[in-house]
Design brief:
single chain; alpha/beta; six-stranded parallel sheet; 6 helices; 6 strands
């Protein structure tokens, strides 16, 4: 099924097992930005995300892919995360994922897409022939109820 992730984490990004990904042949990650790495519009990362990224840096190549199109936000996120951020990606369409693969210099079968949204991150990874990892939004985020409703609706399609 096109929305079924390869891996599903019970928690947010910080609970993702780097060792498991590496042992399964993953050499690179395409990471979603908002709600996966940082709270939307905050421009900051938590100490937990910072620690997870530090552990992943020694093992995996990483790039961030976001649908956000504000240049100042993307530039700030790149500085805060100390990695390349591709903005205006138009996920789930393939263009941004192809650009990310070129930056990583890895084949699709060696890369996993990590994100919190089935309809953008997971679907885009599947369309691009990559493995996918569905994580929960960062535990520090309190979402508006309509966003939580939409997210839960997406998860219904995964279970079917």
């Amino acid at each position: 099924m096109f929305l079924k992730p390869t891996y599903s984490s019970p928690g947010d990004l910080t609970t993702l097992d780097i060792e498991q990904l590496c042992s399964d042949g993953i050499k690179g990650l395409i990471l979603d930005l908002d709600s996966t790495l940082m709270e939307p519009k905050s421009g900051k990362i938590t100490p937990q995300v910072e620690a997870w990224l530090a552990g992943a840096r020694g093992r995996l190549k990483m790039v961030v892919l976001t649908n956000n199109h504000r240049p100042s936000y993307i530039e700030n996120a790149s500085k805060v995360l100390n990695m390349e951020v591709i903005g205006h990606a138009a996920k789930p369409w393939r263009r941004g994922f192809r650009e990310a693969l070129q930056i990583l210099q890895l084949p699709p079968d060696a890369v996993a897409v990590v994100g919190d949204r089935p309809l953008t991150d997971i679907w885009g990874g599947v369309l691009s022939d990559m493995r996918t990892v569905l994580v929960r939004p960062l535990s520090t985020i309190v979402e508006p109820s309509i966003k939580t409703f939409c997210r839960n609706l997406e998860h219904v399609f995964i279970r079917k």
